[in-house]
Amino acid sequence: MQKGKINVQTENIFPIIKKFLYSEHEIFLRELISNAVDATQKLKTLSALGKYSGDISDITIEVTLDPEKKTISVKDKGIGMTSSEVDKYINQIAFSSAEEFVKKFKTKSESEMNAIIGHFGLGFYSSFMVSEKVEIITKTYQKKGETKAVHWECDGSPDYTMEDSEKADRGTEVILHIAEDSVSYLDEQTLLGILKKYCKFLPVPIRFGNEKNWETVEGEKDEHGHDKRIEVEKPRIINNTSPIWKKKPVDLKDEDYKNFYHELYPYTFEDPLFWIHLNVDYPFNLTGILYFPKVKRNLEVQKDKIQLYCNQVFVTDSVEGIVPDFLTLLHGVIDSPDIPLNVSRSYLQSDPNVKKISNHITKKVADKLESLFKDSRPDFEAKWDDIKVFIEYGIISQPDFYDRAKKFCLLKNVDGKYYTLEEYEALVKPAQQDKDGQLVYLYATNQHEQYSFIESVKARGYDVLLMDGILEAHFINTLEQKLEKTRFTRVDSDTVEKLIKKEDALPSKLDEDQQKSIREMMEKQIDTKKFTLAFESLSESEMPLFITQNEFMRRMKDMSALGGGGGYGFMGEMPENYNLVVNSNSPVVGRLLLEPDPDKVSAIIKQLFDLALLAQNMLKGKELAEFIRRSAEDLKI
């Protein structure tokens, strides 16, 4: 037996490793299995090169749990190690890295530690985060020289023992004796969850116990005449060793992509809209599949659905900063050996390879969207309502993306017609300009609630966009900055006569004194703190009274409600303020001056005001019930 003291200057490095090596202790299992996979892949390579002639038909990695002994073991059938290799790679190299880690720790703050962890080959020593003792039993694949099996043991101090051992087959087994503060990992379902999270696409089969399944017995019937089925116990293989992102697109069908999508997201029942298969080998290595899902109203629900892998080993599903923010709405898998495995997300965000990968993914997404638009515009338009949130989010959050997206970004009007930004400018330029020569893009956010306003402006020959998405307030704001001499105005934010230059403006039928009289009548019944009265000369067929809201104030309030109101977060707390527009050419308004009965004047104003509130969906509760009752009374003969 060989006893030794690991050559480290600190009395005990393991408390530091245990606390600071990884933020999530469950990663110990990922690290040990990754090492086992590496050892197995090396053996396969040696076999392919003719340098190993042994049997490699079964290379399954086995994970074993023994709750009574409080042990977890990971056993591979890879290349194994000789005693000198154990001494070199476990006692010297890894512990030297550990010592360097400790020295760095002494000079860094706790927050800075995350950025340096990836520089140390400490994967094996992550086992001490959950263990009070770790054993290694290993036997080399080599037939000549030092071929005896080796047993190494360490209790988390600088002292270790190493001796010859009995082991029939090649490979390495790591046995963890779980510490009292980590006994939660001795639960079978907990361990199975960790394995499925980190290892479900590793390239070597991984077995964790057995599972029961029902199988049909061919040629036999049960007592009811049905095919006989029996319960059988089979090895539980937890991973798919050949995920489709590692295959060539030419070898895959649409059904393969859809099936894999549902394998990734088993609780998602809708198929993806389309997908992008990534396959790059220069200037970096990158494979993966990104899916465009149907986006729901809650953007936060959509995030954290891209899974990041390094050589099929799961790294994280929190990819903000690794891929552009707007692409975090996509689903799927990104796999790259150029992404460091043993690092925190903050380190990934500053890694130059990650930035190159991020830029490439943005380009591939833009290429895909542009090709879909060019190749089949009708099909692209049919998908627009589902994919527009990706494009709008990209334009809002990624300035460079706009230069590509403006070619395929569409605007949809209330009649269901689609236009590119260039096409829509050409459509409205002849008629929709204000007195300063700015284009006025009229839009509605709810086609049903704003119906009367939509019909009013359409009757004048103007076009109305439908902008009812969850990002529209921010998107409109961004477009106003991108498009020259263009502003967006909701159809109910003001009268068209005030918005758009018109040569044949109607004269008012009420002079200043008459308007003053009507104002006084209305102010007796209307809360002037919430409503500002204004008179405008409109067509006799227009509503006598209607309500508008300042475009800027309403938009800032909408943006603030969604988040990121451009510094106007206080808008959500501001009281609502509306304009009450009086049509000075309405016969009903003129009648107020001729009515001698004050009670009838009050009744008319109340009815007109309630109709204006109703048009804006602002008449509710008791006031709505009273309006209905009063209207029913007026219908009685």
Helix and strand layout, with pairings?
Elements: E1 2-5, H1 14-20, H2 27-48, E2 61-66, E3 71-75, H3 83-107, H4 110-113, E4 131-139, E5 149-154, E6 159-165, E7 171-178, H5 188-199, E8 206-221, E9 227-237, H6 254-264, E10 274-280, E11 286-292, H7 299-302, E12 306-310, E13 313-316, E14 331-335, H8 345-350, H9 352-375, H10 377-397, H11 401-405, E15 410-412, E16 418-420, H12 421-428, E17 439-444, H13 451-459, E18 464-466, H14 472-482, E19 486-490, H15 496-499, H16 512-523, E20 531-536, E21 545-548, H17 551-562, E22 578-583, H18 587-594, H19 598-615, H20 621-635
Parallel strand pairs: 2-8, 12-14, 17-18, 17-19, 20-22
Antiparallel strand pairs: 1-6, 2-3, 3-7, 4-5, 4-7, 5-6, 8-9, 10-11, 11-14, 12-13, 15-16, 21-22
Helix pairs in contact: 2-5, 9-10, 10-14
Q: What's the gist of this structure?
A:
With 637 residues, the chain is an alpha+beta fold. It contains 20 helices and 22 strands.
Describe the structure.
- With 637 residues, this protein is α+β, with helices and mostly antiparallel strands.
- Among the domains are: 2-208, Histidine kinase-like ATPase, C-terminal domain (Heat Shock Protein 90, 2-Layer Sandwich); 244-378, 2-Layer Sandwich (Ribosomal Protein S5, domain 2), CATH 3.30.230.80; 511-547 and 576-637, Heat shock protein 90, C-terminal domain (Four Helix Bundle (Hemerythrin (Met), subunit A)), CATH 1.20.120.
- The chain is 37% helix and 21% strand.
- The protein is built from 20 helices and 22 strands.
- Strands 1-6-5-4-7-3-2-8-9 form a nine-stranded mixed beta sheet.
- A hairpin with a 4-residue loop joins strand 2 (61-66) and strand 3.
- The longest helix has 25 residues, at 83-107.
- The radius of gyration is 35 Å and the shape is elongated.
- The protein starts with a strand and ends with a helix.
- The model is unreliable at 109-121 and 565-574 (pLDDT under 50).
